[in-house]
Amino acid sequence: MNKTQASSVPSAPDAPALAFPWDHPRFSSWISIGQACQLMQQSLARSLAPLDIKPPHLDILINLYRFEGISQQALARKLLVGRSNMSMLLPQLEKRGLIERRGDEKDRRVLRLFLTETGRDLTQQAMVVQTALIERMLGDAPAEDCEAVARSMQRVIGLLLAEQAGEEG
How far apart are CA 23 and CA 18, in angstroms? Predict the structure, then answer.
């Protein structure tokens, strides 16, 4: 990296000038969070394999279980994915008879999503699998530690979403 490239790299206000990310005192937290997330997703995928669903499918099914009749657009925003992701995943679930799309009675342009009876049964089975995985991984951790991590991650999520909104606006 030359001097011009180095000076064009954005830096956070009041951030210490570090030559390498691993010199940052919070770098190990950053790496640990990423690795834990990736390994949990891999473990969840293996655990869900007997049900023939993948974690992205589970995200959709659980949200439809909790928020029956949610619109496709609202679901995409909730899951932080684009319309192209939704347009790929929803037909897969629909073809398997797990969900159905219905037009909104007030606005014909809006499609609402619902679980079928088969979808509801499969979602309940998958939630048992997911809950068991969470318990295996975090069952020994004190609840207050888990809550502290959740608060910290919610703060990070908020910052990242605000940053993303600023880039889009």
Answer: 7
Tokens of 106: 């007030």
Query: What is d(CA 37, CA 45) in angstroms, rounded to the nearest whole number?
Result: 12
52-131: CATH class: mainly alpha
Instruction: Put residue 42 in one of left, alpha, beta given phi > 0 → left and psi -120 to 50 → alpha.
Output: alpha
Lookup: tokens for 33: 């969070």
Going from the first residue of the chain to its last (169 residues), give the mean pLDDT of each consecutive group of 10, the final group possibly shorter.
48 62 85 93 97 96 97 91 87 96 87 96 98 95 95 93 84
How many Å is the maximal CA-CA distance in the chain?
62
Give the SS3 label for residue 51: helix
How far is it, in rounded angstroms, from Cα 141 to Cα 119?
32
